[in-house]
Amino acid sequence: MNIVVSSSTAGLSMRSPVRWRVAWENELRLADHIELSDFFRKTYGPTGEFNAKPFGDHRSWAGARPELRVIGYDARGVAAHIGALRRFIKVGDVDLLVAELGLYGVRPDLEGLGITHSMRVMYPVLQKLGVPFGFGAVRHALKEHLTRLLARRGLATIISGVRVRSTLPDVYLNLSPTRVEDVLVLVLPIGRPISEWPTGTVIDRNGPEL
C-alpha cells in the first residue's frame, strides 16, 4: 500500500512541491532501492566516506532494515526520507516495544525541508501501528536543532546521559561485534505518556541500529 500523503509542502514555495509517500518495505521495487541508495550516498557522503559505505551495491539501508518508510519526492527525485522499525529494546531492566526511527536524510539542497515535515507524516502512521513510543538515537551536535524543531513543539522528548548498545551490521564484520555510543535519545510518546518511559542509563537494541 503506497499512500501519497500530500502534494505540496508549506513554506517551500520557491521550490518544486514535495509529495510524501508511506511505503511498506515489501512494496519497494528494485528501482526504488537504487534511487534511495543513490540518495543516501549523496546525503551521508559529505559527513564522511565511512557513513556512506553501507549504501553501496543498491543497498538502501545501513544496519537493520526498516519496516516502513516515509519518502518525500519532488521534481528532482527523492527529497527526504525517514524509516521505522517495530522492535523490542531493553531500557535498563525493562523490555519495551518501540518503533525505532532512523535513516533520516534530507537532500543537501533542501535543508529547509526540516525533520518536522517528515515527522508530521510519520506520527499518524505510528499511531495506527499502536506502538507506545517512537525511539531514536542522535548525535549530541543535533541537540539544539531537534529541540527547536521537535521538543519545543511537544512532538518529542530528548534524553541525555544514556548509552546505547548495538550489534554491528554485516558491512562492519571486520570490527568489534558490538558498539556502545553516548548519544541523545529521542522519545516520541505515541500510545503512552512520556512519564511511563523507563528510567535507565543503558539501552540495548540487541540488534543493529536502524
Overall tally of structural domains = 1
Report the total helices: 4
- Structural class category: alpha+beta
The CATH topology turns out to be Aminopeptidase
Mean pLDDT: 84
Helix content: 10-25%
CATH superfamily membership: Gcn5-related N-acetyltransferase (GNAT)
User: Any idea of the CATH class?
Assistant: Alpha Beta
Order of helices and strands: EEHHEEEHEHEEE
Gyration radius, rounded: 17 Å
Name the CATH architecture.
Answer: 3-Layer(aba) Sandwich
Notes on the structure:
- The chain has four helices and nine strands; from the N terminus they run E-E-H-H-E-E-E-H-E-H-E-E-E.
- The chain has one domain: Aminopeptidase.
- The protein has helices at residues 30-44, 49-52, 114-129, 143-149; strands at residues 3-4, 19-24, 68-74, 77-91, 94-106, 133-138, 157-167, 178-189, 202-204.
- With 210 residues, it is an alpha+beta fold.
- Strands 4-5-6-8-7-9 form a six-stranded mixed β-barrel.
- It is globular.
- It is 20% helix and 36% strand.
- Keywords: Acyltransferase, Cytoplasm, Nodulation, Transferase.
- One of its GO terms (molecular function) is acyltransferase activity.
- Belongs to the NodA family.
- N-acyltransferase required for nodulation. Acts in the production of a small, heat-stable compound (Nod) that stimulates mitosis in various plant protoplasts.
